Every structure is written in C-alpha cells, then in structure tokens.
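Q: How would the structure tokens look for this protein?
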Amino acid sequence: MADIIFFMFIGVVVGVVGFNWILNASIRQLQKKPTEDEIVDEALRLYKSLTIPLKIDKVNTTYYCYNNETNDFCCQGQDLEEIKQNFKARFPDHGSYILHDYLHMFPEAADMIVDDPTDRELKDKIKNKNLIK
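A: Here is the predicted structure in token form.
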C-alpha cells in the first residue's frame, strides 16, 4: 500500500513539474520580443510589398511604365505628373519610384532625385553590421 502511495506521489510531482515547464515555455514564447534585425527585415519586406519600382520606355511623346520586377505594365503618361496620376488611379494602395537609370528622362524631377531607398537601406544595414566601411 505504501508503494502505491509513493508512486502516486511521484506521478503527481512529475505531472506538476512537467505542467509548470510547459506553461513557462509557452509564456516565454508569447513574451518573446522581436530583435532589431527582425523588425528591420519586416519593415523592409512590407515596404517592398507596397512599393513598385518602375522602369520607363519612351515611345514618341508617351512614357510607358513597367514594374521592374515582373515587367507588368503599370501606367503611361505624357509627363511625370500624368504618370503619377495614372499610377495612383490604378494602384491606390501602392507607392512607386522610378529607377535611377530612367530619371534622366524627367529633367523637371532633378530636385527629387534620390538613391533607390531599398538599396540605401540595405547598404545601411550592412554598414551597421560593420561588414563594409
């Protein structure tokens, strides 16, 4: 009889310890905070999913804009303003940028020329990890 009570006691102790371990592991998983790299990676992924890089073809006086990643047609226009309007009409929830190689087609945008933001962020991330100078 004492043996049965002893083994029941051991079973209860093992059960309580196991339950406590599983509960603590679950709580730690729920409280896990993302690292800075994970946050930056998620922000970059979100940026890329909502931004379309445009490459431009000019035929006569019309500019034709294509998604640089898929080569899908995005919009067309006679000038930069018309391209902006037509892009927003077709993709109201997305942003865009004209790739640096095509900006020379729009001299009126000279004051807006910046580096490709995706490329710049990637370079900054590498610099922060001290991989390049």
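The chain has two domains: 1-32, 40-128.

Residues 9 and 15 are 10 Å apart (CA to CA).

Upvote if useful.
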